[in-house]
Structure prediction request, 376 residues.
Amino acid sequence: MKNMIGFLTAISLTFASVGQAVACTSILITDTEGRAYHGRTLEYSALLPMDMTYLPAGMRVISLTPSGNQGVTFDTKYPILGMSAKVVTASKQVTVAEGINDQGLSFSANWLNGTRSPAVGKDHSKVMSVSDLGIWILGNFRNAQDVKEAIKSGKLEFWVPEKNTIAPDTPLPLHYSINDKKGGSIVVEFLDGKTQVYDNPVGVMTNGPAFPWHLENLNNYTFNNVNKNTGQLGKLKLQTQDSGIALTSLPSAETTQGRFVKAAFYANYVRKAKEPNEAITTLAHIMNNFDRPYDLTVDMAGGMGDGVTRNNSSEVTVWTTLQDLSRNLLYFRSINAMNWSVIDMNKLKDVKQIKSISTFDVDQAGADAFKLFYAN
Prediction:
């Protein structure tokens, strides 16, 4: 209990002192056989006290209603491995912000300002807090289409907690990307008091504005990846000195809008790998383009960059994950490392209890980090 109180205090102070926004980039690619691989970065201006958590199948989940009563309850069907934090203090379980299950489904929660909770009815057994959305999705579903149908069926009513550790007194500012091993991809948002589910035709997600805005904005970027190396102005013939001019009009800014365009370009133009190991290497190269070291950009005190900051701050890539959705492999790297640690979910079948490990301990475990989950 003392550790949990310390964790909650730490995460609350962290968000309070440096602002209120987490930048993220989520990218889905496929290989030549149609197998999917998902990468994600998390940026913030402090090293967030999150954990890598394994949740075995058969876990009892008890969600809460806005009044604090017991809401939806269920037992998970599939094990979950991912990044977690105690985001809602009153919640019965941790919130999964990023993760996979052993069925080839991935889940990412990315920052989105302006979320507003849908209204819920009086039948508490139908009501679920969105802080439990990750566990519900990964614990019960095998593909993105099934998740879409379940959310749109109306059998459950979702609400967005205001009392949370990452944005106190503001509805939990997140939207969600769900991807499966065959390339299925959807985005879920809670805006204007409504639950919205969108197909994701480009396989990427960053932060705000709302997802349809980002798709509309891509109409401003109709060029492709083919270099135009020669031209002529009047009588002057032009020729580039090297390759790469096709990228000239890609946004260079690290804003959510700029990253979305750049991510869509990478996800859809980079050559597809032929087999899984090559695909993971390809995805790692792609995600390197969204890796932010300290002080690449700096927000001055009182600025709006990552929320109204009290001190000068610099967003950095706190951690990055790669997910091989067909082989149930999760690759991890924090700001403290360049090499990847890998956790094979298939080797965790004998872990019967929830096990959490500090994100910054994973790097120190070396290339094969699954052993951490068997340590006392």
Observations:
- Residues 2-18 form the longest helix (17 residues).
